Amino acid sequence: MYVNVLVQISLSDDKLFTYSIPSVIKNKIQIGSRVKVPFGRTKIEGLIMGVKVQIDSDLKVKDIIEVIDDEPLLNDEMINLGKFMSETYLCSLITAYKTMLPSALKFNKNKTGIKTEKNIYIKEYKEVETRAERNIIEKLKENNKIKKSEISNKKALNKLLELNIVEEVKEEIYRLDTNTKKEEPKILTSKQDMVFKKVIQSDDKIHLIRGITGSGKTEIYMKLIENVIKSGKQAIVLVPEIAITTQLISRFRKIFGRDIAVLHSGLNDGEKYDEWRKIKRGEVSIAIGARSAVFAPFSNLGIIIIDEEHESSYKQDNNPRYNTIDIAIERCKKHDSKLILGSATPSLESYARAKTNKYNLIELLERINKKELPHVDIIDMKDELKKGHSLLSRKSIEKIKDRIQKKEQIMILLNRRGYSNYVLCRECGIVLKCPNCDISLTYHKGSNIMRCHYCGYGTNKPNKCSKCNSSHIMLMGTGIEKADEILRDMFKDLRIIRMDSDTTSKKGMYEKIINDFNDHKYDLLLGTQMIAKGLDFDNVSLVIVLNGDYSLNIPDYRSSEKTFQLLTQVAGRAGRKDLDGEIIIQTFNPDHYAITLSKNHDYFNFFNKEMLIRKRMFYPPFCLIVAVRIISKNYEEGYKEINKINKHLKNELNYKYVVLGPTSSLRINNTHKFQCIIKYKDKKLLYKVLRDIQKHYNNNKIKLEIDFNPTKL
User: Fold this and answer.
1) Residue 49: how many other CB atoms lie within 10 Å
2) Each residue of 111-162: pLDDT tens digit?
């Protein structure tokens, strides 16, 4: 017998090679398992894709060296899903399969071991001589087993082992094993129950739940999952940010106990491996996590829920550049299960599909406690600056003082990391830039380091200008570190905690910050956009947005949509329980429709206005977009190649396709990026042309990227 083995030759190419099966491992051969095979003068890992009885007699084949897995890593569904990804995103098969697996199981990688502990069990009750031996026996009668590490008197233990009274057993344990006290699920309100019934009674497979912030979408999700589990099926719940998982997992554990596996980048390789194996072994019915959890290896999926479905983090930026919603739809087709997309501010594409009946639209426009949505004030910071108020407006200061008196909590959003946005020489006007990127360095006061947020380069803050030798170095702009410092100086008794990628870099800090704020150990939570969505705090009555028009300045056709979504989502953090909520949005563009419509939480009118603009400009959802990029260390070479591609696209594609570009972006990490944008509706001719282009770029000097529906242009 012979097998076809998929091996990776390069990043963009993979091929099937035929190997013979030694008789000693014949019984271990299964499609979807990894094997080690000889390849030229080396040994590499591959994936068994097929078995065949005969081959061409002229074909010389080598033997498989070993089978790595006791059982297949990938079943038929996941193998076919990899083929779907390869065809849809024009990526290699092996890259797609690697994406599905935890790091511990990826090809040609050092393996993460299974964690074990030694336990002591009673084997046979006999009379023993010493008190220490009797103490061990008594503990075993009470607890059935004892960890060997917990027995202090090793001499007594060794005697019991020698007499064959107890036995030592080495057992596998999971690194994450939380035991939460279970609670009864909340009874749904009439509005929530209506949404639940609409989903389960409908024949539609894809449902978009547009529920305003605080409307209780999570309770509906849990009720739907409970219904699915009762029928013997399984569920996947996806969230866009690790920060959101903290509270969500806590709420789910109170209802479902240990029937949950967690998958996100905040776990180490061993923890991810354990959680993946829980799912693979059928030990849990629910997987909760970020984007990659969509690949959780369940065999009988009943539902996939994608919360905050509008978030760009559901699109992977590196190869394979998959969209999580696409993968979820494909998996739901295979399992004949339902897909739930939930958001207070759905993406325009999703809401447009719902409006044209491609998705079943269900709207929940009432908060769970029937409270009004928070009152929103828009403050024009141009006027405030004239009066000497740069960070906080007068109204913001007054409202913070009011909340301090009432012992209510405050959240402040500032979507800028670091202390100062850039460092300027006052004499010659030069801005200190990263040597690897065309980007200014951000000053981080905590570490006294100038840091590039693109390539990670860091250097000490200079005392003198490298160009004119002047010592007049100025810190410009306000980042979240500086805002923290100013707030502490303004409000001496205010207990402030900061939440950004710097303060949450250590393991467990997401959970600690959220739990401490929830327990009222702090009065004010200052954070970047990671605090804007999904978090639920009873005592927050005031939310302030600093620089509310920040994302409007990004050169992207989605900038207005992202601004509206961010402001609406963060506004929903206030007044979620008994307290009335109030929002202050500080902006230099108070008349922009994305800001004025967020004042009234007016998604419907925002959708209609933005759709008119998108239609006029022929942007999604009125078309699809693919970006074809060239990445090169050499500017001239890259520019030459992108112009070749641009010419080829315009020659080969007909009038139905709009080709824009080429354009170049700022140098990042000593690499230049060039791109052409194609707007299209029919993909048949496009895919043929793109595959032809792909064949020409398989070297290290020039890298080709093809990105369907990119989140960044």
Assistant:
1) 18
2) 667 888 899 898 888 888 898 888 888 888 888 889 998 898 989 999 899 8
421: in domain: no
Can you give the pLDDT at residue 345? 96
Six-digit token pair at 91? 């990526």
Which ranges of 202-345 does DSSP label H, i.e. alpha helix? 217-230, 242-256, 269-280, 324-335
Beta-bridged to residue 658, according to DSSP, are 679
Asked if residue 663 belongs to a domain, the reply is yes
Helix axes 190-201, 217-230, angle to 10 degrees: 40
Prior bond to 435 cis, omega within 30?
no
Cβ atoms of residues 411 and 542 within 8 Å: yes
In three-state secondary structure terms, 541 is strand
pLDDT (tens digit per residue) in 369-428:
788 899 999 999 999 999 889 999 999 999 999 999 999 999 999 988 898 888 888 888
Residue 501: which CATH number?
A: 3.40.50.300
Q: What residues contact residue 199 under an 8 Å CB cut-off, 6+ apart?
A: 207, 209, 220, 224, 338, 340, 360, 362
Rounded Cα–Cα distance for residues 104 and 581 (Å): 46
Q: Structure tokens of 704?
A: 């080709």
This prediction's pTM: 0.91
- 42: containing domain: 2-105
The Cβ-side half-sphere exposure at 610, using a 13 Å CA radius, reads 29
Query: Which of 49, 82, 105 marks a domain boundary?
Result: 105
How many structural domains does the chain have? Answer: 5
Residues 36 and 135 in one domain: no
Please report, for residues 197, 227, 236, 337, 361, the alpha-carbon distance to residue 202 in angstroms, rounded to integers and kept in the order given.
Answer: 8, 14, 20, 12, 11
